[in-house]
Hints:
- The complex is a heterodimer.
- By secondary structure, chain A is an alpha/beta fold.
- Chain A contains seven helices and ten strands.
- Chain A is globular, with a radius of gyration of 18 Å.
- Chain B has four domains: 1-53 and 284-418, no CATH class; 78-221 and 226-259, no CATH class; 430-455 and 664-798, no CATH class; 470-649, no CATH class.
- In chain B, the strands form three sheets. In chain B, strands 1, 2, 3, 4, 5, 6, 7, 8, 9, 10, 11, 12, 13 and 14 form a 14-stranded mixed β-sheet that branches. Chain B has a six-stranded mixed barrel with strand order 17-18-23-20-22-21. Chain B has a four-stranded antiparallel β-sheet with strand order 16-24-15-25.
- The longest helix of chain B is centred in the middle third of the chain and has 38 residues, at 326-363.
Amino acid sequence: MLLQLNHIYKWVKQGGKRVFLLNDISLDVEEGEFISIMGPSGSGKSTLLNVIGMLDEFQEGEYMFLDESVHTLKEKHRSKLYKEYIGFVFQAYHLIDELTVYENIETPLLYKNIKSSERKALVADMLDRFNIVGKKDLFPAQLSGGQQQLVGIARALIAKPKLILADEPTGNLNSKQGEEIMELFKELNQEGVTIIQATHSESNAAYGNRIIHLLDGSKQHQASN
Amino acid sequence: MIKNYINIAWRNLLKNKLSGIITIGGLAIGLTACTLILFYVAHERSYDSFHADSDRMYTVEAQVNMGGDTIYMNAMNATVGALTENASPAVASSLRLKDEYKPVILTNTQQPGTRFSEKNFSYADANFFDFFSFKLLKDSKTEALARPYSLVLSQDMAKKYFGNQNPIGESISVRKDSTYLFTVTGVMENTPSNSSIHPDFVASLSSMLTMNEYKRDFDSEAFRLGAFPTYLKLNNASDVKTVQKTMQELSTQGNADATDVYSLSLLTDKHLNGRDASNTRYISIFPLIAVLILILALVNYLSLSTARASLRSKEIGVRKVNGASRKSVAFQFYIESTLYVLLAFVVSVALSVILKPWFFGILGIEIDAVFFLNSTFLGILAGLLVFTILATGFYPALVMSAFNPVENLRSSRASKTGGVRLRKVCTTVQFVIAIALLVSGIIIHQQLDFVRGVDTGLNRSDVVMLPLQKTMGTNSTPFRNEIEKLSQVTNTAVTQYPIYKGYNMFFVSSEQMPDAIGLPIFAVDDDFFQTLDVNWELKPEDEHYYSKSEHVVINEAAISKFKLGSNPIGESLLFGNSKREIIGVVKDFHFENLDAPINALALFVNSKTQATTNILGKSGGCLFVRFQPDSDVSQLLSQMEAIYTQYDSATPFEYQFLDDAFDAMFRSEERLSQVFNLFIILAMLIAGLGLFALATFSAQQRVKELGVRKVLGASVIQLTTLLSFDFLKLILLAILIASPLAWYFMHLWLQDFNYKTTIHWWVFLGAGTGAMALAILTVSFQAIKAALANPVKSLRTE
């Protein structure tokens, strides 16, 4: 078991009333799964990903990640945990504009205090794998959306995470680019990386081996194929 | 890691060039001001500390009570140093160092053409170079001043008199009343600018034993006051009390009635805490201004970097998601601040070097360039650098590291409110400082104008003073005659000394005041009153009153000081043993610093012929020349110089306008005013730059709001007002805070003055309007630009 959510509640107060962002969410994720979270805007997809990614807090419930209870961990310990095991991919890529492709991919390694020579080798591997060696000295603004997302994924993978959280990774891409990215995710999943993606698109969701439907913060039903 | 941080900081700088330049420029300006002031203050504080034993070198001072006035004297009898040294084992050595009071005329005997009037000529004991740490460049240490009529020249003077020739063994003639021949026995390094002792020529003090002018100064063996400033070096600084006690005993040994109190004061204190503080009067205000300017620059940096922070929020979010801890983000911003500060520092050092001559020109002081490498100064500078890095990095690091990644990455909602309140506070603080400086500067300027315009009882304009030397001698009569014949000259008068520069003192008593009081004396001729427009209170009836023997003219202040009757004509004052009858009273006029009320004064009036021969010629007095108001002054001066050289070729021609001499008494205020002018400009510049950058950010951040408003029908003027008003409110607040502050401090400052200007309300209004105008100018530029933008475009960028 990679992670387990038990009866997670998250809400914000609006005019004295609780508005639930996540309403009694329970979820078990095994290693090697590829899960798609679907639902309309505002249904809580991103919030759920953020909670799983330990970027966001929740008010009630339990969260176990690799047998550690995340909800009781201190901030420092938690960040160590996600630094080690989780990579993020965003709809808007979120590359650092002032850093080159190479430096963007390198960033997570800096925060893991990896030695310079080792960093070089790791980044070079990643550039090679994604076929973007020739683009390593370009800045994000000089790349197409699909290329930027490739860099985003390369950055998420560089620290060799067990879990990739992807929040509408193809949302800003055209259909061809989107398909390429999804094929890449499939490949990664086959190599053993667990992937949880949030998406609007039925066809993208179909890449996953499990689909979770969210509406107003609640799980609707579970289907598997 | 650090490389990555420096990279991104550098690229950010390049990307936001304008705000980068403003941030670094503002900081550089502030640091430059700080550096220059620190340089100045460190130099002033370092006076005389370069001597090896400066911590135990003392000057001997005596406190003398004369007629109720306490007077401090530093000239001791020739024996005082040696007597103390013999009597007290705590004294390591003593030194007598006597300066020539008036310029002397020096000639290289080989080249009679090299003849100059020299002011910094001193006589010193043979141990001069052991006692002080001045370096002898040529000749051995002990020999240089051992024999009578030896002379050591400074490097500059060796060059001036001998060019590149070796001066050792050459002769220089020194002309006083008589002419003496000195042999050059050494060349010493030029004295550093932070030395309170700065002779260009040091002659052996033993020469004075056989010089007619000084022989008598050695007559007495007693421990008492005399003619020689005396320095002591103690074995231990803690022995001061013991030595003072020994000196007190020595002084009463010979004369049981002696009441003079002898004391030692540290040589290093002489410059700053000496009796004449005019140089350093505002030494404590300057650092305060430096701190204010630095605060201004730091606040500017702070407000700009928080403004930038909102643009950086995404990056920080990404970094955190990728595993950056709060600590590493804080560290990143420290690196960034360090880079900015280092750049600003480099710029400021360059600026300081460039501006140094100009800045110290304004202050009217010279500082050796080598002082830039003085270890204390470099230490202070390093401290300033570290402080600036810590101070600038602190807040951005703290604030930005706390950003929540989830919020920052929710793309449409960059943290817009971040630091807005802080930036408002920053802007207000900046303008409080700038406006307070502006108001203070205006008031200082007004005060200067005011004291210059005070009716001091004599007419200073269109008068030039020509100080003569004894070398004029009997030529003084034809000289004066020819000056008077010049068509532009209306009047001339003779006094012993140039006015505002000093006077003789007599100890005088009256019947009503039997205890002698120190009374300043002017020896003048009868043209004095007309030439300087000094008015009579009680004019002598006899037109030739001055021919009467044993008379005196006094001023009004003397009447009350000596408790004379309201019509004191016919009463007399006792000058030592000679009694003088009061024959006239003049209205009070200022003859010294305006800080104190007008002192009592006595005038010995001579006939014109007598004054010209005796005061002007024989003893080297001063000729006052009044000329017509519309005269061609430079032509007049060259005419006078021609006449002068015709009658006295030995001493160079010198002159000073009376109003310049008067203004010179306000030099420290003048400096203060000029420094204020400079810093007002800097403060306004920094504050203006900061405001400009903030307006830019604010316009950027409100692009969407402005677009929506414009679509809804807002006019350009309405939008400009909307954007500007936010800032103008802050300036208004700053005016309200700064005005009472400035009023309070200026009010305190004015308390030191005998004559003070009133602080007018319109000064505050004027300064406020000025600041407001500056703010409107800077803000509206950005506001109009933002308001003119096409809303379709600005809305699409969201």
